[in-house]
Design goal:
Elements (H helix, E strand, L loop, with lengths): L14 H8 L3 H9 L6 H14 L5 H8 L4 E6 L5 H16 L3 E6 L4 H13 L4 E4 L7 H8 L4 E4 L9 E5 L1 H14 L5 E5 L5 H16 L7 E5 L5 H12 L9 E4 L2 H13 L9 E6 L2 H5 L5 E4 L2 H14 L9 E4 L2 E3 L7
Parallel strand pairs: 1-2, 1-3, 3-4, 4-5, 5-11, 6-7, 6-8, 8-9, 9-10
Antiparallel strand pairs: 10-12
Helix pairs in contact: 1-2, 1-3, 5-13, 8-9, 10-11
Length: 344
């Protein structure tokens, strides 16, 4: 009875099987896989033919185990449902592909315990390096992992120290240009929608908004906080309902949303309640994801260089292996993209 007839899975061909089929040594097969320039074209062709006939698949896990390090980078993102982070990951993938590496994606979903669990698994898997948008950029665990030999680069956050490389955007300036634009459009009472008490980036955006008001001679009371629990479309819709429920005399005429998902939710509520955008409510988002320009009323947004952010972070991670590497904190400058949601 053959192996196939018994119902058992056929055994995968190994390097020894390839060597026997090609009539070469095991070392020659290894050279074809790892140092093909050392093998004559004729011999290399024989080995490659044997590999094809045997359907040989290289055991990369075994090779990585011998080397003590995988050819994998990992990105622990803060919110997998937000297109901003998948765009950042696409930039990381560009750099990983260029280095013949794979990129694993993990979603912490803003949960510290889940983030810590992922970090533990990735360290055990001996990934080549970890990119992370952390819940807390100053969490001691990040430094401990780096100290044990796994490089860590912080993405979209700036840690307090210089124990890691980091890549971020100047969110204070981003908030400033958003609200400055609204003031220039004639608005002097502006809602700020986001969870600034728990997310550092949102806190910085709000600080920039306050600075813009101050520069215009307006006090902090001209910024009306509508705090959300998260940064989703549903949170934006809920904030819109709260905003519409305010008395007309004190209701803001414009809103600066902490990200585009929140802004899109607010835009939906405005449409449902027949509030005109921008005549009754001007809206500015943040991130400039693809959906911003495609909205029913194209959304004014603060653009972050998302793909460049990810690519730069991955390049910094790969540079950790170079002699004399010094940690760098790279900060990009965002720009305002003005569309119909703010132009009367």
């Amino acid at each position: 009875m053959t192996v196939q007839e018994s119902g058992a899975e056929p055994k995968a061909a190994g390097m020894k099987d390839v060597a026997a089929a090609a009539g070469v040594s095991l070392g020659t097969v290894s050279n074809v896989l790892n140092r093909p320039d050392r093998v004559s074209p004729a011999t290399r062709a024989k080995v490659e033919t044997a590999m094809a006939e045997l359907r040989f698949v290289r055991n990369e896990s075994a090779r990585q185990l011998r080397a003590g390090r995988s050819r994998v980078l990992a990105y622990v993102m803060l919110d997998g449902s937000n297109p901003f982070f998948t765009d950042v990951a696409a930039g990381m993938e560009d750099a990983a592909d260029a280095g013949d590496l794979s990129l694993f994606l993990c979603n912490s979903a803003h949960q510290p315990a889940r983030e810590a669990a992922y970090l533990g698994r990735l360290e055990q898997q001996r990934v080549q390096g970890i990119l992370i948008t952390p819940v807390d950029p100053d969490a001691p665990l990040l430094g401990e992992i780096a100290h044990r030999g796994t490089p860590v680069v912080v993405v979209d956050r700036t840690p307090g120290g210089t124990t890691h490389c980091s890549v971020a955007v100047d969110d204070v300036y981003g908030g400033e240009i958003a609200v400055r634009h609204l003031v220039e459009q004639g608005h002097d009472r502006i809602a700020f929608i986001g969870n600034h008490t728990t997310v550092g980036q949102v806190r910085d955006r709000r600080l920039g908004a306050l600075r813009a008001l101050q520069a215009a001679g307006l006090g902090p009371d001209h910024l009306v906080d509508l705090t959300t629990t998260a940064l989703t479309v549903a949170d934006g819709r809920g904030a819109g309902e709260r905003l519409a429920g305010l008395p007309a005399a004190v209701r803001p005429t414009a809103a600066f949303c902490a990200n585009d998902l929140v802004a899109l939710g607010l835009l939906q509520t405005c449409a449902n309640l027949r509030m005109r955008v921008p005549q009754d409510m001007a809206i500015v988002g943040y991130d400039d994801i693809e959906f911003a320009a495609a909205a029913a009323v194209p959304l004014t947004s603060v653009r972050q260089p998302r793909r460049r952010l990810g690519r730069t972070a991955a390049e910094l991670l790969l540079a950790e292996a170079e002699p004399g590497h010094e940690h760098r904190q790279v900060v990009f400058t965002p720009e305002l993209v003005v569309r119909a949601s703010t132009l009367r």
